[in-house]
Amino acid sequence: VFIAQSRASGSHRDVEDEELTRIFVMIPKSYTEEDLREKFKMYGDIEYCSIIKNKTTGESKGLGYVRYLKPSQAARAIEECDRSYRAILAEPKNKSSESFEHDYYSNNVRQEPRGNTLPFCVQPEFCTFEKNESRIQESVSKRLSVVSRLPFIQEQLFALFDLVPGLEYCDVQRDPYTNSGYAVIQYSNAASAIYAKYKLHGFEYPPGNRLTVIFLEDGSDSSE
């Protein structure tokens, strides 16, 4: 969809760069840009790697960006790299990078089980848990659950999730007692499901009605 849209506007490369080819990863603070390139070059042609550093001390924050030449290479890196890297698609450069980095830390580090399970040390201020917080690590799959306080229309929801390539089916169910919306979405690969969840969780559809999108077990090996 982004590619088709950008061809019409004459800025194909720019849209791909902003939305589909740059990934954001959590890395050991000892990593150099060469280390980062070495770990991720197996997934495709890398345009550049960069490590986020503390502006005052110059030390690595344990976060980095990898930009590939093709969207398919970025998707492969997200799907196949070690889960300790917490790889996701990066926000476009025109958005606040510091806000994105903080949200990324909060969402990923806090989802770790309690205890010393991280393969490397991250910044101490992001390693604290709220007393009543009991989140566990989310299992990634090709299947998504979509919940809404308003009922869904099959054709409209299908069209929305079909914006992400690889949609296999969209099954809309309706609760006659609450009139809320519930649907099961399945993609042909985990990378598409990850992207759809990342982009559409919290999306207002229709305006004022936020969608809740979570992963559902699809029977595959979660380690894959």
Q: What is the C-alpha radius of gyration, as a whole number of Å?
A: 19 Å
Strand order of the largest sheet: 2-3-1-4
How many angstroms separate the termini? Answer: 27 Å
Quaternary state of this entry equals: single chain
Strand content: 15-25%
CATH architecture verdict of the domain at 16-89:
2-Layer Sandwich
CATH domain class of the domain at 16-89: Alpha Beta
Overview of the molecule:
One of its GO terms (molecular function) is RNA binding. This is RBM45 protein. Pfam families: RRM_1. Keywords: RNA-binding. This protein is an alpha+beta fold. Among the domains are: 74 residues, Alpha-Beta Plaits (2-Layer Sandwich); 73 residues, 2-Layer Sandwich (Alpha-Beta Plaits). The chain is 29% helix and 22% strand. Strands 2-3-1-4 form a four-stranded antiparallel beta sheet. Helix 1 runs antiparallel to helix 2. The radius of gyration is 19 Å and the shape is elongated. The two termini are 27 Å apart.
